[in-house]
From TrEMBL:
SUPFAM superfamilies: alpha/beta-Hydrolases. It comes from Lacisediminihabitans changchengi. GO terms for molecular function: hydrolase activity. This is Alpha/beta hydrolase. Residues 22-155 form the AB hydrolase-1 domain. The keyword Nuclease does not apply. It comes from the Bacteria. The keyword Hydrolase applies. GO terms for cellular component: membrane. Pfam families: Abhydrolase_1. PANTHER family: HYDROLASE, PUTATIVE (AFU_ORTHOLOGUE AFUA_2G14860)-RELATED, MONOACYLGLYCEROL LIPASE. Keywords: Hydrolase.
Length: 257
C-alpha cells in the first residue's frame, strides 16, 4: 500500500555540495549514499550534487508499516526533493535498485528530469518473456537466488558481513538486523516485482545506461532490450563490476556531462 500524502516519510539528504546544474543521486538496495564516493569529486566542480539515502537505508527512516515498493520509494523521494527547492531541471542518477526508482521518477516528472543515468541497473522481466534459452536460465537463477536470500535470514546476514569486508567502498553493502526488513521487502517488491521496462519505454528524457562487463547482477537479455529503445545510449565498461569503482565512476561522470 502506497503512503498517503501526510504519512510519506522525509528522507535523509546525505550530501548537497557543489554549484551548477543539479544532479540527484539515488543509491541501491542495502546501501547508502557512500555508493557515489568516487563520482562526486568528478562531478561537483561543475554541478550541485545531491545524494539521498533511500527509505529504510543509510540514515533515512524505517517506517514499520512500509512495504518498500517502487511507489513508496518514489513517493518518499518526491517529498524529500520538494524540501530541497530545485528551481531547474536536474539530471537523475540511479545505481542498482536506485536506477529502477529513478526510471519511475523520470516517468512521473518529465519536465523536471533533464537526463536519466542508469548505473548497473538490475532490470528484470519474467524468464518466459525472454526468447534466448540462456537468458531465461540466468533470469530464473537470479529470481530463485533472491527468494533464497529472503527466506534464510541467518545465512544472508552472515554472508553479507563477510562480503562487506571485501568491498573497496566501506558500507557499500549494509545488510544487518536493522536493515533486514527494508532489504527483504525492497528485494521482493521493488526488484523481483518491477515494471522498469515499461517505465523506460515511456520516459522522454535522454537515457544513459552504464554498466560493467563483470556486473554480477546484470541480465544481458534484458540489457539488449533496453539498448534498442529510443533515446538510450549504452556504456559498457570493461573490467568493472556492480559497484561504482573509479573506472566506472569516470564513465558515469562523463554520462552526467
Amino acid at each position: 500500500m502506497a503512503f498517503t500524502r501526510d504519512r510519506t516519510p522525509l528522507l535523509h539528504v546525505a550530501l548537497d555540495e557543489g554549484e551548477g546544474a543539479p544532479v540527484v543521486m539515488l543509491h541501491g538496495i542495502a546501501s547508502s549514499s557512500v555508493t557515489f564516493q568516487n563520482v562526486v569529486p568528478l562531478v561537483s566542480p561543475h554541478h550541485r550534487c545531491i545524494a539521498i539515502d533511500l527509505l529504510g537505508f543509510g540514515e533515512s527512516p524505517i517506517p514499520p508499516d512500509a512495504e518498500y515498493t517502487i511507489a513508496e520509494h518514489t513517493a518518499a523521494i518526491e517529498r524529500t526533493l520538494k524540501t530541497i527547492h530545485l528551481h531547474e531541471p536536474f539530471t537523475l542518477v540511479g545505481h542498482s535498485m536506485g536506477a529502477l526508482i529513478a526510471a519511475r521518477l523520470a516517468l512521473r516528472f518529465p519536465k523536471q528530469v533533464s537526463k536519466l543515468v542508469l548505473v548497473s541497473p538490475p532490470i528484470y522481466v519474467k524468464p518466459e518473456e525472454l526468447s534466448n534459452l540462456l537468458d531465461r536460465g540466468v533470469m530464473d537463477f537470479y529470481l530463485r537466488a533472491y527468494k533464497y536470500l529472503r527466506a534464510n535470514e541467518a545465512f544472508t546476514l552472515r554472508s553479507a558481513e563477510f562480503v562487506e569486508h571485501l568491498l573497496p567502498i566501506p558500507k557499500a553493502m549494509d545488510i544487518n538486523e536493522r536493515t533486514w526488513t527494508p532489504f527483504v521487502k525492497s528485494l521482493e517488491h521493488s526488484i523481483e516485482s518491477q515494471t522498469t521496462i515499461s517505465d523506460l519505454a515511456s520516459v522522454t528524457a535522454p537515457i544513459e545506461m552504464v554498466y560493467g562487463s563483470m556486473d554480477q547482477f546484470r541480465s544481458d537479455g534484458v540489457l539488449r532490450i533496453v539498448e534498442r529503445m529510443s533515446g538510450v545510449t549504452t556504456h559498457r565498461v570493461l573490467g568493472s563490476d556492480h559497484l561504482i569503482g573509479k573506472r566506472l565512476a569516470r564513465v558515469v561522470a562523463t554520462a552526467i556531462g
